[in-house]
Amino acid sequence: MLQQMRSGNGFIAALDQSGGSTPKALSLYGLDSSAYSNEAEMFDRMHEMRSRLIKSPSFNGNRVIGAILFEMTMERTIDGIGTAEYLWSKKHVVPFLKVDNGLADEANDVQLMKPIPELGARIAAANKHGVFGTKMRSVINLANQAGIDEVVKQQFEVGKEIIAGGLVPIIEPEVSIKSPEKKEAEARLKKALLEYANALSGDQNIMLKLSIPTVPNLYKELVDHPRVVRVVALSGGYSRDEANKHLAENTGVIASFSRALVEGLTAQQHDAEFDKALDASIQSIYDASIK
Fold first, then answer.
1. How many beta carbons lie within 10 A of that of residue 238, not counting itself?
2. pTM of the model
3. Which residues contact 52 (CB under 8 A, 6 or more apart)?
4. Which residues contact 188 (CB under 8 A, 6 or more apart)?
5. Model pLDDT, residue 103
6. Is 172 a catalytic residue?
7. Is 157 a catalytic residue?
8. 255 pLDDT band (50/70/90 cuts)?
9. DSSP state of 57
10. How many Å apart are CA 71 and CA 244, to the nearest integer?
11. Which of 98, 135, 190, 209 is catalytic?
């Protein structure tokens, strides 16, 4: 798994929408609130969507080298096999687990992660299911140095707990693509990330999930850093075409798209139509990731 993450050609599928973002994700998939009558049924519909994606002939380790799962998805099965186990054993796709509990209220122009008292239990569950790494998200709205420093400090503190648990953390300090100070925030974020990455010991590895930078190849030093397994990019609200265009300008950075990946896929499509649309989406993101 480590070898595939370090040098595999392809991208990471982000399949980790949780409670708050699930209704919107289902709506884009063509399932409005009439498709479920309670939260349990809503998550059933979401798991059916994710299972359909994962089982598609287009979805395999030749182009999709990893996939990020929501905890409930990891604990469910596909064809009687745990989802994470299915990904690796049947598709050769490296599984990751989203471990954060969402965002705290904004302060210092950033949103830190809410506390994660369940972290130890989630690390144990991830190890039980053969998961390779984790993902956790913070948000930076403006180029506030104090806020950016808080975000990076928190991410690395939690990241070191995850490393100690035997997993590789994806550290995700997202800079909002709507920020009027995006370019400056990214420059300050890069400096902080390099300082913390340089302080890691030789047996501590991380991954980074970052907004596609305003300045192409801004994160090249992090791409080449010996402690950084991979730098991946979120789509951040861009359309797939926009995200692919910007991503292709950043050598060595690969995609980790969510909405952009499933754009144009619906529950109403018959399987051949669905698979054809997914194949085209995967190919376009793969092409942008290997440039």
1. 20
2. 0.97
3. 274
4. 143, 145, 148
5. 96
6. yes
7. no
8. very high
9. T
10. 28
11. 209
